[in-house]
Design a protein that fits this description.
Elements (H helix, E strand, L loop, with lengths): L7 E5 L5 H14 L11 H9 L9 E6 L8 E9 L9 E8 L8 H13 L6 E8 L2 H9 L3 E12 L2 E11 L4
Parallel strand pairs: 4-5
Antiparallel strand pairs: 1-2, 2-3, 3-4, 5-7, 6-7
Helix pairs in contact: 1-2
Length: 178
């Protein structure tokens, strides 16, 4: 049987993506410990987050879409680079994350998003990328290691969700020689 062809495009996140991105993130809030947010968001509540990721600069939002679908079904996932910490000396460090729709996992969407994100960041004054992974999450650990991230430590029982405590492993990747 021939494999179904998927046309996945990666581009900057735009206002029209807000509903689908909010729905995707809310899935992870409600169903997983991947994020430590505990209450689902409305699209209006997520709007400042969307606008904090312009099309250029070190803080990006990239969206993977399947061009065969219109609307929310077309959003397969997203990747972000966000400020690592608020203090000025951290400006050349970013925290990165990637979220894939449940139906898009295992299809290379996360890799495509990260490849695109790191390519975009190569032109920016960014020295290091950091990723926190709530454990256990072998798929995320493998993805980050494939992209050259190294484990630098684990915060034990740092977050409580669904009535239990979760560890978060921290990974780091060198991005530039600035």
């Amino acid at each position: 049987m021939p494999q179904e062809r998927t046309e996945v495009q990666v581009r900057a996140g735009v206002e029209d993506d807000l509903g689908a991105l909010t729905d995707l993130y809310n899935h992870f809030i409600r169903e997983t410990a991947i994020t430590f947010d505990t209450v689902a968001f409305t699209a209006e509540q997520r709007r400042p987050w969307l606008h904090s990721h312009p099309e250029d600069g070190p803080h990006r939002l990239l969206v993977a879409r399947d061009d065969r679908f219109v609307g929310p079904r077309g959003v397969l996932g997203y990747a972000t680079s966000s400020p690592f910490r608020a203090k000025p000396a951290y400006a050349t460090s970013v925290e990165v994350s990637v979220y894939c729709a449940p139906e898009a996992t295992g299809r290379g969407v996360g890799s495509l998003l990260y490849r695109s994100l790191f390519q975009a960041l190569a032109a920016e004054d960014v020295h290091r990328a950091y990723a926190g992974i709530a454990l256990p999450n072998e798929a995320s650990v493998r993805l980050h290691e494939r992209f050259g991230f190294a484990h630098v430590g684990t915060y034990r029982e740092v977050g409580r969700k669904f009535g239990r405590y979760w560890d978060v492993a921290w990974y780091e990747k060198e991005l530039g020689q600035h």
